[in-house]
Amino acid sequence: MDNTRTAVVVEDDHDVGDALSRLLVQAGFDVTVARTGAQALTVVREQDPDLVTLDLTLPDIDGVEVCRQIRTLSDCYVIVVSGRTSEVDRLVGLEVGADDYLVKPFSMRELQARVAALFRRPRSGELIAAPEAPLAQDGPALQAPVDVSGQTGCDDLVLNPRAREVRVDGEEIELTRTEFDLLAHLVSHPGVVVAREDLLRAVWSTDFVPESTHVVDVHLANLRRKLRSASADNQWIRTIRGVGFRFDPCCL
């Protein structure tokens, strides 16, 4: 059985594209290079790759729109590799479904480390295991399914890690892989304040530079918005200013 991982490098700069391709080939990937957004979407649709590296500045379609469309086609890991350095660009890239954002110029060792970190996380549809090392000594392990019932004015939240399914008041909520992993980790430590850095370690399986904690904030904001659309009164995920986030089983 062929277990070779596949990757698509979306990059119109031939030198950068070739360098990325060589690195991923050395890492064991079968690589296809796409020079335009339209070509990238065709390749993703045909191959359903494991990984996409995506430049945001392409000659035909803006990379943000390419990322948004990729998310309708595949649950592959997406790393934006871009010369756009503003925080707004980073946040937009993450909001439309990218798993990570790497600013040019970058070292190949850093890209290799980030790819390795992503592949230590389960893809959508794969089983998610309970955390091996809870943040709190007495923190309960995540079980499947987890039934977190609110009190007056608070709908039920049911999380099933084996099916990677979340339901609010019986209605299934569509979450990205990252949003589900963040919620699962918080649910597994009810009432415990989890620092942003600890969420990075638990969900991304790596330590990033301090500014990358914005990744956590963006994905949690998207998660909260989806939960709020199903239950406007929910207050399950609370921000503890200057520290991190806490999952409260009940809305009090």
Automatic annotation (TrEMBL):
GO terms for cellular component: cytosol; protein-DNA complex. Residues 149-249 bind DNA. GO terms for molecular function: phosphorelay response regulator activity; transcription cis-regulatory region binding. Keywords: DNA-binding, Phosphoprotein, Transcription, Transcription regulation, Two-component regulatory system. Residues 149-249 form the OmpR/PhoB-type domain. Pfam families: Response_reg (PF00072), Trans_reg_C (PF00486). Residues 6-119 form the Response regulatory domain. GO terms for biological process: regulation of DNA-templated transcription. The modification 4-aspartylphosphate is found at residue 55. This is Response regulator transcription factor. It comes from Nocardioides zhouii.
